[in-house]
Design a protein that fits this description.
heterodimer; A: ABC transporter involved in vitamin B12 uptake, BtuC; two-stranded antiparallel sheet; B: mainly alpha; 2 domains; two-stranded antiparallel ribbon; 3% strand; globular
Chain lengths: 333, 292
């Protein structure tokens, strides 16, 4: 079985190159607008990797904004009430998200693919409703609440420090996901995804492992949400919206579902396209282009952008074979 | 204390809201039955139907109920194109792929509509606004009654089409056993396109009725009704049209009851809570057999 974790040349040289670019990128861009885009891009790499891990165990969620938002709200409230640095509270907020993730996972683990998509979608709406109704006294209702910044804006170059600290957290999260995918847990996820009955026969408890993947995925999504909100400094219930649930899906499908590199490649590529189109002055047009690209990728490149080199090679080999066959055919004549 | 008059009012609103869900859910059921495809972008077709109705109404000013046929015809064409270009290439590659493709479609359709018509909330006035008919203790707006009659008419028409025509029989055969249908010489791909087109036309009818009853609409209105329609077909049983009708009515009533007793904000959440409770108890849906 293909675990999509092969270390070929592209990965061996690509990874250090990517990290190198990420380290020097702020100096290449040189302005704060681009630095902000880069920071958000890192956050979304965590978010889409978290979604991807859940999909790795065969569960496609359409409501990951719920965990993103719960992490954000929980971390904001903890940081605001206790005065602890947001750098600590993001992990506490994410733990709340993971706890809710287990609760949601409990209702989802026995469901079929698209029932699960529906239920997770519904959960995002339920969480949003609760936030603006029952929890209004602490959540601020539709107006939202101010969130403590990661670093005080008084510190010189605080954006740059923020960027590097988020880069470190992102790399840590990716390494964590890599470790999980390589471990027995990751193997179990694969087995459940490919064939649940066979996995059961091999002694893997699908319910337990699905819950584990829900918890980890929700935890990482919570970290991403908390980081974004502490970076922006404000949180509103819009964070539970459909848009934020769909973005990680789009990024991952674009990059390559079920691969470690997929969410990273997809997020980077789509961020470049997205913000490039914004500079051209497109608003709704951007979504249309992203939608068309997404469908093209699904139809013609089912394994995503990370598979592009292989796909090109396959096509090229097929064509060469065809030509060779044609040549031998003419020789025989 | 439960006031009987209010209860009746809620039931009536529920039935009216249910009509739109029934049309959406029936269309989805038809598509799912024949193609076994999950189209999360179904609500977008409702939205297009709504905008087509509103646009024709703004230009010509004719009775908006008369536009329903036009918007259905337009959506048959659009649906056929979407099926051919998007869903056919990925048929049989897994449910998740269909969901992801739907997300792409949602982006494209919503934002194309926003480019063409703008993204503000709009609404039109029904010619029968303010006209109501007293039934017992209730004053029922004439619009509601027309909408229920139109919905019933469409469903009867669909039923006759499925039971009495050759294409209808072929569609039912395809939905029962795709390979068997192929063996007896039915062009299943043609059935796919037809069922997708009809499903979209039903969504367009729902869109027209939505607009005519004076409800506001914008390019993003379709997602939530579509997801609810999915919830309805999960509750009512996959591929079962009577199930979709009963489910749609129950949903409409439950939702309006919740909106009345807990406040309007709970309207959407309650329908999902209902779905989740049902799925926790019965992971295959209320009437679902093994399903897909």
């Amino acid at each position: 079985m293909d675990l999509y974790l092969k270390r070929d040349a592209l990965v061996r040289y690509g990874t250090p190159a990517l990290i190198g670019i990420a380290v020097i990128a702020p100096f290449l861009s040189g302005n704060l607008y681009l630095l902000n885009i880069l920071t958000l891009m890192l956050i979304f790499i965590i978010f889409s990797s978290a979604w991807n891990l859940l999909a790795y165990s065969g569960q496609g969620s359409l409501g990951h904004a719920a965990f993103f938002g719960i992490g954000a709200y929980a971390s904001t409230l903890i940081a605001a009430k206790s005065g602890i640095s947001p750098y600590v509270t993001i992990f506490l907020g994410a733990a709340v998200a993971a706890f809710i993730g287990i609760l949601i996972g409990l209702t989802c683990v026995r469901l079929k693919e698209w029932f699960l998509a529906m239920v997770t979608f519904g959960f995002a709406i339920i969480v949003q409703t609760i936030t603006v109704s029952l929890l209004t006294p602490i959540s601020g209702g539709w107006d939202g609440i101010a969130s403590p910044r990661l670093l005080s804006p008084d510190i010189a170059g605080y954006q740059l420090i923020e960027y590097y600290s988020i880069l470190v957290i992102t790399i840590a999260c990716i390494l964590f996901i890599y470790a999980i995918m390589k471990s027995r847990i990751g193997l179990a996820f694969c087995a459940i995804r490919e064939n649940e009955i066979e996995a059961r026969a091999a002694g893997i408890d699908p319910v337990r492992f699905r819950l584990v993947s829900f918890a980890i995925s929700a935890y990482l999504a919570g970290i991403a949400g908390a980081l974004e909100i502490h970076h922006i400094g404000y949180v509103t219930p819009e964070i539970f919206g459909v848009d934020l649930s769909f973005w990680p899906v789009t990024y991952v499908i674009f990059g390559g579902l079920g691969t470690l590199a997929g969410p990273i490649v997809g997020t980077i590529a789509l961020t470049i396209i997205w913000d490039g189109l914004k500079m051209l002055g497109l608003t709704f047009g951007r979504y249309i282009i992203i939608g068309v690209l997404l469908i093209l990728v699904i139809v013609f490149l089912p394994k995503g952008l990370v598979d592009l080199p292989n796909e090109i090679q396959r096509r090229w080999n097929a064509r060469r074979e065809k030509r060779m066959k044609a040549d031998t055919a003419t020789l025989k004549e | 204390m439960v006031d009987f008059g209010i209860l009746l009012q809620i039931v009536f609103w529920g039935v009216y809201a249910g009509c739109i869900y029934i049309l959406l859910a029936t269309g989805l059921n038809l598509i799912f039955g024949v193609m076994k495809v999950v189209n999360f972008a179904h609500g977008e077709f409702l939205m297009i139907g709504a905008y087509i109705t509103a646009t024709i109404f703004f230009i010509t000013g004719i009775n908006p109920y008369a536009i329903i046929l036009l918007s259905m015809l337009a959506l048959i064409a659009i649906g056929a194109v979407v099926e051919r270009l998007c869903f056919r290439p990925i048929l049989g590659t897994g449910k998740l792929n269909e969901i992801f493709l739907s997300i792409g479609l949602i982006y494209i359709i919503q934002n194309s509509a926003a480019v063409i018509w703008g993204d503000e909330w709009q609404s039109i006035k029904s010619p029968y606004e303010g006209v109501s008919i007293p039934i017992g203790s209730l004053n029922v707006p004439l619009d509601y009654i027309i909408i229920m009659v139109v919905t019933a008419g469409i469903l009867v028409g669909l039923w006759l089409f499925l039971k009495r025509t050759k294409i209808g029989r072929e569609m039912r055969a395809t939905s029962q056993n795709r390979k068997g249908a192929m063996l007896v010489g039915i062009n299943v791909e043609r059935m796919d396109i037809i069922s997708f087109g009809i499903g979209c036309a039903l969504a367009a009818a729902a869109g027209t009725l939505w607009v005519v009853s004076g409800q506001v609409f914008n390019p993003y209105m379709g997602s939530i009704p579509a997801i609810k329609a999915f919830a309805i077909i999960i509750l009512g049983g996959l591929g079962s049209i009577p199930g979709a009708i009963v489910g749609g009515l129950l949903y409409g009533i439950a939702e309006n009851g919740a909106a009345y007793y807990f406040g309007g904000i709970w309207k959407d959440a309650v329908s999902f809570i209902l779905l989740i409770i049902v799925l926790v108890i019965r992971p295959t849906g209320l009437f679902g057999e093994s399903g897909e």
